[in-house]
Design a protein that fits this description.
There is one protein chain. The chain folds into three domains: 4-98, Fumarate Reductase Iron-sulfur Protein, Chain B, domain 2 (Orthogonal Bundle), CATH 1.10.1060.10; 114-207 and 373-424, FAD/NAD(P)-binding domain (3-Layer(bba) Sandwich); 212-370, FAD/NAD(P)-binding domain (3-Layer(bba) Sandwich), CATH 3.50.50. α1 crosses α7, α3 (33-41) crosses α7 and α5 runs antiparallel to α7 (85-98). A hairpin with a 3-residue loop joins β10 and β11. The protein is globular. It contains 17 helices and 16 strands. It has helices at 4-12, 21-26, 33-41, 45-52, 59-65, 69-72, 85-98, 122-133, 150-153, 163-174, 191-197, 226-237, 260-272, 307-310, 380-385, 408-411, 416-424, and strands at residues 114-118, 137-142, 178-181, 200-203, 209-210, 223-225, 252-256, 276-280, 314-316, 319-326, 330-342, 348-353, 359-362, 365-368, 372-374, 403-405.
Length: 429
C-alpha cells in the first residue's frame, strides 16, 4: 500500500477534467473519482470515504482485484502514467474501517416486502445491499459454507484476504441482511418455493459451467479444471478442509489458458512448490503497449503480466492443444503452432495450423483455465423457475413474475466490478 504522502502526490495529479472519463466512461459503478482524488490530496479522508461510498458498496474488494477500468480511461494515460485510482480507493476504505466510519446503514423505513437472493457472490451481495437499503427484507441463499462466491472460492488468498469478506459480512448482517449458507437452491430447497414464499427472487448464480477441453486423453489422471485447484486451496487456507485436494509440489505444471484464472493457477502452483510452471494460450501474444485497435479511452488490448507471472513462469502463445499423452496419468500435452488472421481493426479473428510444428510439452499436472460458458439449461434453478435463456445460455429476467437475473448469469462471465454494478441496477423500488 502506498504511503499517505505518496497517495497525496498521486491524487494531486488528477486534473479534475471537464469530462472525467474515469467516472463517466471507465468505472461501471460511476465512482466520483476526481472528487475522491481531491479529498485525498487535501487529506480529508472522511469526505473521501463519503464520496466513495455514494456509489461503491464494496471498495475493499474492487481496490484489490478490479483491473481498474478507470485508470485505463484516465486522461493522463494519453501521454504518461494514469493516476493510481485503485491505490487511492484502497487507502480510503481501509482508513474508514480503521476509524470506525464504516457502520451499518439499515433502511429508514421497511417497505413490507421480501426478496430472496440466490447466490452470495458479488452480484448477489450488491443486490442484497441495494434492496435492503430500499426497505426490503432480504434473505441470501448460498450453497457453499461461506459467502463471497468467486471472491472467496476462486480468487486466491494472496490476492484477496478472505477476512475482508468476513469483515463486510458483519456489517451486512447488522444492516438486517440474512444469510443462509450451505443450502443449495434447486436441490435442498425448491426455487419454485422461493418464488411463492418471497415477493421477488433475484438469481445471481454466476456462470457455473467451466469451459472444458475435450481432446483425446482428457480422462487421464492429473488433468483438472482451474477451480478444482483454486477452490480447494482457498477452502484449505480458510479452514473448511484439512488439506488441499490438489498438491503441485514437485510437479511439472501446465496451465492451458492465458487469462486471470490461468494466472491465479500459476501463482498457486508456485506457492505449492511446483518444479516448473508453464502457461500456454491459443491466442497470439498481445503487444507490449496499447494496440491501435483499442485507442484511449477504450480498455487497451495489450500484454498484461501479473505478479504470479513475475514469480516464475514460462509463457507461450499461438499454441493449440491437440491431445493429452500418458498411460494412466498425464505426462504431457501435444500442441502445434497456429497463425492468426486479423481484422481491419487489428484484432485476431481466426487461425490455421502451422505445418510441422507439433511438439509435446512435458507436464504431470494440467489445469484448464479457459473461461466459463454460461448456465446450462439443465440447471435446476433454470428448470424450476422456467427461465428463458439467450443463445449463449445467459438467463433472462422475468419482471412479470418478479424474477430478476443479475451478474454473470445474465451477461456472461465478466469482471467483479460489472457484477457489482449489475446488482445495484436491479429495477425494484
Amino acid at each position: 500500500m502506498l504511503s499517505e504522502s505518496e497517495l497525496k502526490e498521486q491524487t494531486s495529479r488528477c486534473m479534475n477534467c471537464g469530462q472525467p472519463f474515469c467516472h463517466a466512461y471507465g468505472c461501471p459503478l460511476g465512482n466520483l473519482v476526481p472528487d475522491q482524488n481531491r479529498a485525498v490530496a487535501q487529506g480529508d479522508w472522511l469526505r473521501a470515504y463519503a464520496l466513495l461510498s455514494e456509489n461503491s458498496d464494496f471498495p475493499e474488494f474492487t481496490s484489490r482485484i478490479c483491473p481498474a477500468l478507470c485508470e485505463s480511461s484516465c486522461v493522463h494515460g494519453l501521454d504518461e502514467e494514469a493516476v493510481m485510482v485503485r491505490q487511492s480507493e484502497k487507502r480510503i476504505i481501509e482508513t474508514a474501517f480503521e476509524n470506525g466510519w464504516v457502520v451499518p446503514r439499515p433502511p429508514e423505513k421497511e417497505n413490507g416486502r421480501s426478496a430472496a437472493i440466490v447466490g452470495a457472490g458479488p452480484a448477489g451481495l450488491s443486490a442484497a445491499v441495494t434492496l435492503r437499503r430500499r426497505g426490503w427484507a432480504v434473505t441470501v441463499y448460498e450453497r457453499r459454507a461461506g459467502i463471497g462466491g468467486l471472491l472467496r472460492y476462486g480468487i486466491p488468498c494472496f490476492k484477496l484476504d478472505k477476512s475482508l469478506i468476513d469483515r463486510r459480512r458483519t456489517v451486512l448482517e447488522a444492516e438486517g441482511i440474512r444469510f443462509v449458507t450451505g443450502i443449495e437452491v434447486g436441490k435442498d430447497i425448491s426455487a419454485e418455493w422461493l418464488a411463492r414464499r418471497f415477493d421477488a427472487v433475484v438469481v445471481a448464480i454466476g456462470t457455473p459451467a467451466a469451459r472444458d477441453l475435450k481432446i483425446p486423453g482428457r480422462q487421464l489422471h492429473g488433468i483438472h479444471l482451474a477451480l478444482e485447484l483454486l477452490e480447494g486451496q482457498n477452502r484449505f487456507l480458510t479452514g473448511e478442509i484439512d488439506a488441499p485436494p490438489i498438491d503441485a509440489k514437485g510437479r511439472d505444471v501446465l496451465v492451458i489458458g492465458g487469462g486471470d484464472t490461468g494466472s491465479d493457477c500459476v501463482g498457486t502452483a508456485i506457492r505449492h512448490g511446483a518444479k516448473s510452471v508453464t502457461q500456454i494460450e491459443i491466442m497470439p501474444r498481445p503487444p507490449d503497449e496499447r494496440d491501435a485497435s483499442t485507442p484511449w479511452p477504450l480498455w487497451p488490448y495489450m500484454l498484461r503480466t501479473s505478479s504470479s507471472h513475475k514469480e516464475g513462469c514460462v509463457r507461450r502463445w499461438n499454441l493449440n492443444s491437440l491431445r493429452f499423452v500418458g498411460e494412466d496419468g498425464v505426462s504431457g500435452v501435444e500442441v502445434e503452432k497456429v497463425e492468426w488472421e486479423f481484422s481491419p481493426e487489428g484484432r485476431p479473428t481466426k487461425f490455421h495450423s502451422v505445418p510441422d510444428t507439433r511438439e509435446t510439452i512435458p507436464a504431470n499436472l494440467v489445469f484448464l483455465a479457459m473461461g466459463f460458458t454460461g448456465v446450462p439449461a439443465s440447471n435446476p434453478i433454470v428448470e424450476q423457475l422456467g427461465l428463458a435463456q439467450t443463445p449463449r445460455t445467459a438467463l433472462i429476467s422475468d419482471p412479470a413474475r418478479h424474477i430478476y437475473c443479475v451478474g454473470d448469469c445474465a451477461s456472461g462471465a465478466s469482471l467483479v466490478v460489472r457484477a457489482l454494478a449489475s446488482g445495484k441496477s436491479i429495477p425494484l423500488d
